[in-house]
Design a protein that fits this description.
Layout (H helix, E strand, L loop, with lengths): L1 H8 L4 E3 L2 H15 L11 E3 H8 L4 H9 L9 H18 L7 H7 L2 H6 L6 H15 L2
Parallel strand pairs: 1-2
Helix pairs in contact: 4-5
């Protein structure tokens, strides 16, 4: 099956959403796991998420403008950033009906916590399996 997928992808440029950080590394790792070498260096890899992030910034100033409808003044000063973060959180709680004003709920709402507790791993297939197992446990 892997050989068929490799042949299908030969000489193809590839496109995805968050694909440069997730799909393509996992695809490469899975090919290597079954002993098939692939080289995406000669391909055009289009990550639509990266285009989105470059065109629609995802930083504190952009979040403040989106949620608080104001420009963030003194960005990158500790006090201004801390106050803006608090304002954004309160605005998010008002904006999204499904968010609860509860630290435990909000902490569990985000997936990034998983990556903070994992050791540094260069093997994407391990990370992929870990995320799948966490999702299965959560949905039981």
């Amino acid at each position: 099956m892997a050989n068929g997928i490799k042949q299908f992808l030969d000489n193809c440029d590839l496109c995805g959403f968050n694909s440069n950080k997730f799909d393509f590394p996992i695809l490469t790792e899975e090919f290597l796991r079954v002993g098939i070498e692939v080289n995406f260096r000669e391909r055009h890899l289009v990550d639509v998420q990266q285009i989105f992030f470059k065109k629609e910034p995802r930083n504190l100033s952009a979040a403040y403008k989106f949620y608080c409808k104001q420009e963030l003044e003194n960005a990158h000063s500790a006090e201004a950033d801390a106050l803006a973060t608090m304002d954004i959180l309160f605005a998010q709680l008002d904006h999204y009906d499904d968010l609860k004003n509860d630290v435990e709920f909000l902490g569990n709402f985000q997936m990034e916590k998983i990556l903070l507790i994992m050791p540094a791993v260069s093997n994407w297939s391990i990370i992929y399996r870990f995320l799948i197992l966490e999702n299965i446990k959560r949905n039981r």
